[in-house]
Design goal:
Strand content: 35-45%
Order of helices and strands: HHHEEEEEEEEEEEHEEEEEEEEEHE
CATH class of the largest domain: Mainly Beta
Number of domains: 2
Strand order of the largest sheet: 7-8-9-10-11-1-2-3-4-5-6-12
Structural class: mainly beta
Radius of gyration: 20 Å
Number of helices: 5
Helix content: 10-25%
CATH superfamily of the largest domain: Lipoprotein localisation LolA/LolB/LppX
CATH topology of the largest domain: outer membrane lipoprotein receptor (LolB), chain A
Length: 337
């Protein structure tokens, strides 16, 4: 998903399976003989246990973004480099749960620990066996993307609380080659695809390690991210939004662009997923200097945000879901007495 270009959404919780069974699954089966859950696992694992390089392009409305990807697996070690080719120059390295993002113009390096199984394309967001209750898997035929033969399927939602997807996956491996996000009426919101790809590429593990460790001349920042519970922070939902379950809760610094200096006070991030779509609830102390009017914002393509003031607090719901879903989260959020 194009959320990959938005770090807060892209690095999502993945699914933990044994290496042997995943490798077998990633090479067997197709959209016609796998359940929705197994098809998603196959696509997810294809991106983890193969070496490849490629250029990935995301388009939404009048916007276009692209990045170059290098990925390699060495045993259980996942190494990845993602270099933006548009927008603010940056290069992101990941070794399992360690993530390093370099901003060369600002000479800032941000080091974080994130969930170890959310590597690109992070199509599967949680190990939720109820995913079949909210999406249909519909095989639609075959096609070609970037010179590869692909299978085309549609992941069709069963309600209007989530978007649908069309996915082209490489026939031999299951690697996601192209993805379209569709709104509740089936209209295209966003599209992402490899424009070129080399599977089983000779990616150098040593070179990626060396590049990741070279932060000479950069100001290294290590934002303090603390695992917490919403209950311990004094927050609850009056009722859960259908299909969405909590997958994590964190206390994190409030990010600002590197040119604006370091981060300041913290915010709670409460993450929910239905297995495909993810919603984050951010809650922080209200600050009239930084917070504008309550309301809805289209962040581009399929990503949306909804903000609301709750007494002395400022709440934001962010995700690649319909506005009605964000509204259901914001309305249900309440401060515990």
């Amino acid at each position: 998903m194009s959320a990959w270009f938005r770090p807060a959404v892209f690095w999502a919780v993945g699914i933990c399976l044994g290496l042997g069974s995943c490798w077998t699954l990633a090479q067997q089966g197709s959209a016609t003989d796998l359940t929705l859950k197994n098809w998603l696992v196959r696509a997810h694992e294809a991106s983890r246990y193969r070496a490849y390089t490629g250029t990935f392009v995301v388009s939404s409305g009048t916007g276009l973004a692209s990045a170059r990807i290098w990925h390699v697996c060495e045993g259980n070690q996942q190494l990845e480099r993602v270099e933006s080719l548009s927008g603010i120059p940056r290069a992101t390295f990941r070794r399992n749960d360690l993530v390093l993002t370099l901003f060369p113009q600002a000479r800032v390096a941000v080091v974080e620990n994130r969930e170890p199984l959310g590597l690109f394309p992070a199509l599967l967001k949680s190990n939720d066996h109820a995913i079949n209750e909210f999406y249909h898997l519909r095989p639609l035929g075959s096609g070609r993307v970037a010179g590869f033969d692909t299978e085309l399927v549609q992941l069709q939602p069963k309600d209007r609380l989530r978007f649908g997807y069309k996915v082209w996956s490489e026939k031999r491996t299951g690697l996601v080659m192209q993805l379209q996000t569709l709104d509740t009426d089936g209209r295209l919101l966003e599209q992402s695809a490899f424009s070129e790809l080399q599977l089983d590429a000779p990616v150098s593990v040593g070179q990626l390690h060396q590049m990741m460790s070279d932060t000479a001349g950069y100001r290294v920042e290590r934002p303090a991210i603390e695992h917490v519970t919403a209950d311990s922070q004094g927050w609850a939902l009056r009722q859960l939004v259908a299909g969405f379950k909590p997958t994590g809760c964190f206390k994190r610094p409030i990010s600002r662009p590197p040119s604006a200096g370091s981060v300041s006070d913290g915010a709670m991030q409460w993450v929910f997923s239905d297995g495909l779509a993810t919603v984050s609830l951010f809650v922080e102390t209200f600050d009239a200097r930084r917070h504008g009017r309550e309301g809805y914002t289209n962040l581009g393509g399929a990503s949306h945000a909804l903000t609301r003031r709750i007494d002395d607090w400022w709440a934001s719901a962010v995700g690649e879901v319909p506005l009605t879903t964000l509204m259901a989260f914001v309305v249900a959020l309440e401060r515990k007495k």
